[in-house]
Design brief:
about 240 residues, Rossmann fold, about 15% strand, 7-stranded parallel β-sheet, alpha/beta
């Protein structure tokens, strides 16, 4: 599909990657951009149409879908990371991440799929992570949710193919946002991530590996678990040492 003259909706558009998506959509000629956030008053980007949205609340998701029936491009960007491990930390926190990062995105897709079909098929972008493929101490709940979201994305792609809806999975390492502020390493600029994703949509790509980190991690998937973990330990040590 062509970004120019599209009607897009971005979740979590008040800051970070979501704001960058909304801005680049406008700059690339989108006819309308719905910028959504749980606190709509925090959206400060001129030129967007602001809607309140909590992706974990089915009533809120349904109301947003009814208000934006002209959408042809859905950007599922909103997400959380609680720093939770799976065995010793709060199970409620694990569930909260799953509700947001997996069921929140799936709920959006389910509500918007009929509108996308009615508007010619359109496209869905799910912002995932290189952590779809690896975990680590303090981030295993996040790894669980991103792995599940990757599987969900692959599943809905098959289910929505008949109605002509492209479903694009976008993976990245770290972006230069508030969430990654404590990591003194190379990070992809939010605008570059948005452009990589939107270029992928225009090319009809099912998957976008937006940076070298995500490409390197995925290239290690054929390894055995022992080999993969050892390779990731070396890569993370080198990254931190830099």
């Amino acid at each position: 599909m062509d970004i120019n003259n599209s009607v897009a909706l971005v979740t979590g558009a008040n800051r970070g990657l979501g704001r960058a998506f909304a801005q680049r959509l406008l700059e690339r000629g989108a006819r309308k951009v719905y910028a959504t956030a749980r606190r709509p008053e925090t959206v400060d980007l001129p030129g967007v149409e602001v809607l309140p949205l909590d992706i974990t609340d089915p009533t809120s998701v349904k109301a947003t879908a009814e208000a934006a029936r002209d959408v042809s491009l859905l950007i599922n960007n909103a997400g959380i990371q609680t720093g939770t491990d799976l065995v010793t930390d709060s199970l409620d926190a694990v569930r909260h991440e799953l509700e947001t990062n997996v069921f929140g995105h799936l709920g959006m897709i389910r509500e918007f799929a009929p509108a996308l079909a009615g508007n010619g098929g359109g496209a869905i972008v799910n912002v995932l992570s290189a952590m779809s493929w690896f975990g680590g101490k303090g981030s295993n709940a996040y790894h669980l949710t991103k792995a599940a979201a990757w599987a969900m994305t692959n599943g809905v792609r098959l289910e929505l193919a008949e109605q002509g809806t492209l479903v694009t999975a976008v993976h990245l390492g770290l972006a230069d946002t508030d969430m990654a502020a404590g990591w003194p390493v190379d990070k992809i600029a939010p605008s570059d991530l948005a452009d990589a994703a939107l270029d992928g949509v225009e090319a009809g790509s099912a998957e976008v590996l937006a940076d070298q980190w995500s490409r390197d991690v995925k290239s290690r998937l054929p390894l055995t678990p022992e080999e993969f973990n050892a390779a990731m330990d070396r890569a993370l040590a080198a990254l931190i040492a830099v």
